[in-house]
C-alpha cells in the first residue's frame, strides 16, 4: 500500500507505532498522504469471512474506509511482528453488546497477540496504532471537516478553558477514551489533561473519578497540513 513503514513514537518510555492513509483522491492524482490507500483487491483478500460479510453491507464510502482500516491494521501488525499480512487475523468485538465494533485485537499469529491496537476514521482519513501490552488509543480529525453544530459545540465544551486548540484537545480526549477501552461510554468531560504545549512532547492525562486512576501518556501525531491527530497509551 505505497509507503508502508510504521511511524515510531515513544510515550513515557513505551514504544508506539502508527500507520495512516488519506483516501481523498483527485481525479487526476494518487491518494494523498504519506501512506497510500491499499489496493482494494488485495485488501479484500485479507478479510475474514465475517469481515467480508460486514464489508458487503456497507455503503461505498464506508466500505472503502472499512477496507483501508482493516488493511492498515494487518500491515501494521505484520511490520511489527515480522510476518506476512496474510498471516494476521484481527477480531473486533464490543464488550457490551458483542457487536463487531469494539477494540480490534490480534487473534493470530500467537506471537503478536500481546499487541494492543486502535483504529480511527475521520472522513477520508484512517489511522491505526499499536503498542506491546499497553492499551493504546488513536484519534484523527481533518481540520476542515464539516461537523454538525452540536458536535462543534461538544468539542468546544470539552476543551473549555484549557487554552488548547479545541480540535486538538478533542483528539487527545478521544485517544485517552479509546486507550481506556470504554470510549464515549465515559463522559469526555472527565478526561483531565495536564497542561502542556502542542509541540508533540508527551502529555500526561487521566480520567477523573476512576478509582484505579490509571494515567495515559499523550502525544500529537504529525500527519501533515490539514490533519489533527493524537495517540495515547496507558502507562
From TrEMBL:
GO terms for molecular function: holo-[acyl-carrier-protein] synthase activity; magnesium ion binding. The keyword Isomerase does not apply. It comes from the Bacteria. InterPro entries: 4-PPantetheinyl_Trfase_dom_sf (IPR037143), P-Pant_transferase_sf (IPR050559). Keywords: Transferase. One of its GO terms (biological process) is lysine biosynthetic process via aminoadipic acid. PANTHER family: L-AMINOADIPATE-SEMIALDEHYDE DEHYDROGENASE-PHOSPHOPANTETHEINYL TRANSFERASE (PTHR12215:SF10), PHOSPHOPANTETHEINE TRANSFERASE (PTHR12215). This is 4'-phosphopantetheinyl transferase superfamily protein.
Amino acid at each position: 500500500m505505497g509507503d508502508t513503514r510504521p511511524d515510531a513514537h515513544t510515550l513515557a518510555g513505551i514504544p508506539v507505532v502508527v500507520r495512516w492513509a488519506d483516501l481523498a483522491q483527485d481525479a487526476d492524482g494518487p491518494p494523498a498522504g504519506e501512506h497510500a490507500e491499499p489496493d482494494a483487491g488485495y485488501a479484500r483478500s485479507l478479510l475474514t469471512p465475517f469481515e467480508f460479510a460486514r464489508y458487503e453491507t456497507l455503503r461505498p464510502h464506508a466500505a472503502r474506509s472499512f477496507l483501508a482500516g482493516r488493511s492498515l491494521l494487518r500491515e501494521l501488525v505484520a511490520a511489527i511482528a515480522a510476518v506476512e499480512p496474510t498471516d494476521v487475523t484481527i477480531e473486533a468485538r464490543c464488550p457490551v453488546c458483542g457487536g463487531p465494533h469494539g477494540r480490534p485485537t490480534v487473534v493470530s499469529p500467537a506471537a503478536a497477540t500481546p499487541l494492543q491496537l486502535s483504529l480511527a476514521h475521520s472522513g477520508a482519513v484512517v489511522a491505526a496504532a499499536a503498542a506491546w501490552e499497553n492499551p493504546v488509543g488513536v484519534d484523527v480529525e481533518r481540520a476542515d471537516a464539516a461537523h454538525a453544530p452540536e458536535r462543534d459545540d461538544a468539542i468546544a465544551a470539552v476543551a473549555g478553558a484549557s487554552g488548547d486548540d479545541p480540535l486538538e484537545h478533542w483528539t487527545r480526549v478521544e485517544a485517552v477514551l479509546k486507550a481506556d477501552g470504554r470510549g464515549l461510554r465515559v463522559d469526555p468531560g472527565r478526561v483531565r489533561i495536564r497542561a502542556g504545549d502542542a509541540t508533540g512532547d508527551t502529555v500526561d492525562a487521566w480520567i477523573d473519578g476512576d478509582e484505579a486512576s490509571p494515567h495515559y501518556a499523550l502525544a500529537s501525531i504529525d500527519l501533515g497540513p490539514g490533519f489533527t491527530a493524537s495517540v495515547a497509551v496507558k502507562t
